[in-house]
What does this fold into?
Amino acid sequence: MGRFLLKRIGGSFVLLIGTTIVVFLLLHIVPGDPAEVMLGETATPAAVAQLRHALKLDRPLPEQYANYMMQLAHGDLGTSIRAGEPVVTVIAARLPATVELASAATLVAVATGIPVGVLSAVRRGSFTDTAAFVASLVGQAMPGYWLGLILISIFSVWLGWLPVSGSGSVSHLVLPAVTLAAFMLGLIVRLTRSTTLEVLQEDYVRTARAKGLAESVIMRRHVLRLVLIPVITVVGIQVGTILGGAVVTETLFAWPGIGSLTVLAVTQRDYPVVQALVLISAVGFVLINLCVDVLYGYLDPRISYG
It folds into this structure.
């Protein structure tokens, strides 16, 4: 286990170094002078030169990357061009809202998808199975912005049950969380159903039934643990999709998270903020998938980390 963790941490470290290179090059792949892009076409040469010097863009590229890594080592993600504040401060004000939304969406998808998937497998071929299959396909096929607009039209405009946008209460969280969870929910339902059907055909399940164990005990002790392995894998991978989908969802519902901050930073050409957001997303994605790998051994002791 220890050797496996060291190898995974080493691989993650290499991946993050590669990510820092890509993030660093964001400033240099922008067409034209990055300083001119940030300041706009009306900027004076003196202002452009001043910004280039402030960002150390007048230094050789290897030196710029070394300075960038030194800043990261000290927790310095740079200064926002538009806000004039440290990027850490700008992101810290928005990050809790995105974590709240992503956590709520994941909870909705997992807490609903696993029971529905298991029920669909147990009642294979029934109306429940067909309805769950159709609903999961719709959830995966419907674009997030379109689903969000439909939910707003029904529950906010027509029925008046939930607020259209903003944050501050649980009622504000419902519509964006459901919108963000739809794709993952459909995927979990289909994956749980197919995995449950496979596990139910295993010999040890037949043996447990032959011994007279209750169906609920068989599902809890022998089936669910194995079903959770691929589900956790999908959840870990889909976290990146959720964070990406949060850009559209947060913009649609005016949710004050890093998704809407990303749109604002790109629109305002605040590239230090964009760099930091890409890097933070990559770090979060790597750490979550590392946790998923560790959970495998807990869910199925047969898995060897050798």
